[in-house]
Amino acid sequence: MAIALRARQNLTRRQLLVRSASTVALAGLGSLARPYLSRAADRPQIACGIASGDVSTGSAVVWARADRPARMQVECSTLESFKSILQASSVDALPDHDFTSKLLLEGLPAGQDIFYRVRFEDIAGTGIAGETRVGHFRTPPRGKASISFVWSGDTAGQGWGIDPRAAACAPTTPCSKAGRTSSFIAAITSTPTAPFPPN
């Protein structure tokens, strides 16, 4: 096994100054370069998931709840990859609203899939942010279009609504006989006579 031996070199004044300055700079940055996991408890978390609603042809409401005072950051895009951001907004989640924040997204394109991502940042502005969650909704079209309403559920939940005399399970008379299910999906399709009303 070959071992490389280096001859001892004399340290010049310039090398001493450069190495000393580098050591001082690295020691000063040590407080900024903390490990990622050491600050996990400082990161605001999304306490109850994210939600969207009140969707119209050009707007929607996004809301979420944090586990402490924080600033909710929301970005939306028509692309799932978020390569092109339509808008980015923020709002504070404070104790007087139970750390819940709600944000109105406006100027959205009609008839498009809208992807949004939400995260909470430390309200003190330290740059510490929690995990990001992604949601999705679709804005309705501006003109007339066919729409579908789908409803799903257990209509005989906890024994209510069970008709043991029914010969077959129908959506209006679910039963729990062996091999039959009490859950069903009902779909209603219609064509509206007027465009969606603006909000």
Could you characterize what this model shows?
The chain has one helix spanning 13-29, and strands spanning 46-53, 59-66, 70-77, 87-93, 100-106, 113-122, 133-138, 147-154, 183-190. The strands form three sheets. A four-stranded antiparallel β-sheet has the order 4-3-6-7, with no helix packed on it. A three-stranded antiparallel β-sheet has the order 1-2-5, with no helix packed on it. Strand 1 (46-53) and strand 2 (59-66) form a beta hairpin. It is elongated. The chain is mainly beta and 199 residues long. Helices cover 9% and strands 35% of the residues. It is built from one helix and nine strands; from the N terminus they run αβββββββββ.
Task: Give the key terms.
about 35% strand; four-stranded antiparallel beta sheet; mainly beta
Write a brief caption for the model.
The protein is mainly β. It is built from one helix and nine strands; from the N terminus they run αβββββββββ.
